[in-house]
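Treating backbone geometry as a discrete language has practical consequences that deserve illustration. No coordinates are needed to read the tokens, only the vocabulary itself. For completeness, the protein is quoted in full, as a sequence line and a line of structure tokens:
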Amino acid sequence: MKNLFPNQESLKFLLVLEIIFWLRYGITTPVLPLFLRKIGFSMTEIGLLMMVGAVGWAIFEPICGILADKINKKWLIIFSFITTSIIFVSFNFASSNSHFYIISFSLSGAAAAGAVSMRAMTTELMPMLDRGKIYGRFMAFVGLGQVIGPFLGGYLTDLLGFNAPFYFCGMIGIIGIVAVIPLKYVNRLEKKPSEHKDIKPISRLLTRAFLSLLLLRLIFIFYGNFQSSTLPVFLNESKNFRASNTQIGFYLTIVQSTSALSYLFLGTLADRVGSKKLIVAGLFGLGLSCVSFILLNGVLSLYLLGPIQGIMIATTEIAMMIYLMTIIPSEISGKAMGMYGFSEDIAGILSFSSLGIIYDNIGPIFSVLTITVVLIFDSVLSIFLI
């Protein structure tokens, strides 16, 4: 089969890496907060631990973004896979709060090298023609890791105990290195000089459009952090659900699988109607859906809510990324992705700690209401900023 566009083969290898990389985070998403809760962590302490991880991302993503523009991104990915595999396993040997804080910070720093490099390579290798359509298909396959991960994490926990998911993440991370080796990546931007020699790269990056997107992204990530830290505990402890580890994992699997399938048509839709409409609709719909966590009763109703949330998340994610690709200078994609990730990390610092405090001191329901208000506010803000 002939290549449909240049760099297609490189994208295939990159796709495999993305699936393996994010599968591990999908596995630990429902497990880690419940594991910490089981050994005596309060929601405030869980939020603090997640915040420490966000600080690690915030420090290392901009640094890795600069490095990614200067050295071969392939080596950063290999480094990331090796170190994160070791760190995932080390969760099983932590014996105090300080150990968990060190591990969380280290994991974020090591993961940043891979995440930033893979994002930057994706933006560079995507074709200009039918970009939304091709990126949508790309993300549909990447979503497979996030589809399988939550259910697998919950199932492994119920079957073998809380230690099993972390050992499994370490193992598949090492296997992932095999997929890095055949990746033939040559930075296509090295082949021609920059057309903007007299303009500092940072000045070309810090435009109104880019800074506005960073703000919208920062606010949107509040939901992702709520989903990975507060929501599993809420579903487990709420009288309306009393969901088990497997049930929580299955619900998250429904959300992620719907997102993955949605990418197949949302990329094409973004090419036709534009990113702005999708960002506004996705944020508003996701905000309204959060109220259902208070109103619904029973695990079955939770499963029915999953597809709606999956579509809204995918709509926002793909629209933001496609919009980002159109406004950043391609030769400094590493710096751009470092800053894009930095906005997500600031959201982590703000959201993990605040949501935990709200849960413990005001009440679980108010943590849900907070997320609802935040997302609807972000939707309104996007109307004026994009």
